[in-house]
Design brief:
The chain is mostly helical. It has one domain. Helices cover 68% and strands 0% of the residues. It is built from 5 helices and no strands. The chain has helices at residues 3-28, 51-73, 77-101, 110-132, 134-139. The longest helix has 26 residues, at 3-28. The protein is elongated, with a radius of gyration of 18 Å. The model has no long low-confidence stretch (mean pLDDT 75).
């Protein structure tokens, strides 16, 4: 297994950890008071609490990367495609958060939010880069048909 694949697995697990932390915090307090984000609720359309976001974080960005990491470890091509899609989804999610939260004028939290966004988007971009490396594409037989060996 190429080192690039091992790094990709590690990046998926780091993203899962970050999402699990945020998702569990929001599940424990869907109002956002403990994370000091409750004033934003009035500005975000169709949101009375943050429970839908918490569930989204845990399912899409915590559980899915763990499943994809196992798939990558066991040489499953679907996991490579899934990781590519997840990286794109992460970038879109972070961009959406930036667009929604920046105009709210959360001056005290903005450095934390932008730092987190840069880290997550950087991990997603690094994942895309790793997936497009020739060693990873060759390992997963991406772009070429799998050749069955005689007797297998």
């Amino acid at each position: 297994m190429p080192v690039s694949v091992l790094i990709l697995i590690a990046l998926d697990l780091v993203l899962a950890g970050l999402a699990l932390f945020g998702g569990v915090n929001l599940m424990m307090d869907p109002t956002g008071v403990t994370m000091q984000i409750d004033p934003t609720i009035g500005y975000i359309p169709f949101v009375s609490n943050f429970m839908p976001f918490a569930i989204w974080l845990v399912v899409a960005f915590a559980a899915l990367p763990v499943i994809l990491a196992f798939g990558l470890y066991y040489d499953k091509k679907w996991a490579l495609y899934g990781s590519l899609g997840l990286a794109g989804l992460e970038i879109v999610w972070i961009a959406t958060q930036a667009v929604l939260l920046y105009p709210l004028g959360i001056a005290g939290w903005w450095p934390v939010i932008i730092s987190y966004a840069i880290v997550v988007a950087g991990i997603a971009a690094a994942s895309v880069y790793l997936m497009l490396r020739s060693s990873v594409r060759t390992y997963f037989h991406w772009g070429m048909p799998r050749i069955k060996e005689p007797g297998s």
